[in-house]
Design goal:
The protein folds into 2 domains: about 30 residues; about 80 residues, Immunoglobulin-like (Sandwich). The protein has about 120 residues and is of the alpha/beta class. The strands form 2 sheets. Strands 1, 4, 7 and 8 form a 4-stranded mixed beta sheet that branches. A 4-stranded antiparallel beta sheet has the order 3-2-5-6, with no helix packed on it. The radius of gyration is 21 Å and the shape is elongated.
Length: about 120
């Protein structure tokens, strides 16, 4: 009886491992990643709570910068994106023609100024 339980447990763990590997391989290499910092051009400091939008014909994501002005956008399908940063009291700024490919990390930092 004990050997049947052990065999069943081993088979279950083996199948779970195959499932996990197939899920990982099906998602690996299909998306890219953009990160960067929004910086005040006068002071050189990162701008907190800036809204950063990353958009293309296939996807759109919006995030907020952290206390140091940093942002990250993950799981972007390959495409050509526009990265736009805006906040009340600051100039809206953007970068166009950002080419995202699979398994790529792009750093896109933006300069902004107080109005």
């Amino acid at each position: 009886m004990r050997s049947n339980v052990a065999r069943g447990l081993s088979t279950g763990l083996f199948l779970a491992g195959i499932f996990a590997a197939s899920v990982h391989s099906s998602t690996a290499g299909t998306t890219g990643f953009i990160s960067g910092t929004v910086v005040d051009e006068k002071s050189g400091a990162g701008v907190a709570n800036e809204t950063v939008s990353v958009s293309s014909s296939s996807a759109s994501r919006t995030v907020q910068t952290d206390a140091n002005g940093n942002y990250s956008v993950m799981s972007l399908p390959p495409d050509i994106y526009t990265v736009r940063a805006e906040r009340i009291g600051y100039q809206t700024t953007s970068v166009t023609d950002v080419h995202v490919t699979s398994d790529q990390l792009l750093v896109v930092s933006l300069l902004t100024a107080r109005l």
